[in-house]
Amino acid sequence: MTHGYMCLSHPRTYRLLDLPLVDLDLVLQFVNELLETLLVLSVLVRLERQLLHAPVCLAHVLLRLRVAALLVVILRLQLANLGENKIIV
Length: 89
What we know:
Distance between the termini: 121 Å
Shape: rod-shaped
C-alpha cells in the first residue's frame, strides 16, 4: 500500500495524470473560440441583411412599377390596334 501511495506522490506521476486534463482544456478552449467566431459571423450576416433590405425592397418596387408601365403601354398599343382595325373594316 505504501509503495502505491509513494508512486502517486511523485511529481512525474502528477504530470502524467494532468495530461488528459490539459488536453481537455485545450479542446474546450478551441470549441469556445470556434463558437465565438460563429456567433460573430451570424451577427455580421444579420446586420448585412438588415442593411441590404431597404435597397432590395426599393429595387423590387421599381421593378414592379416598370412592369406595370410596360403593361400599360402594351394595353394602349392593343387598343390602338383595335381602333385601327375598326376603322379599316
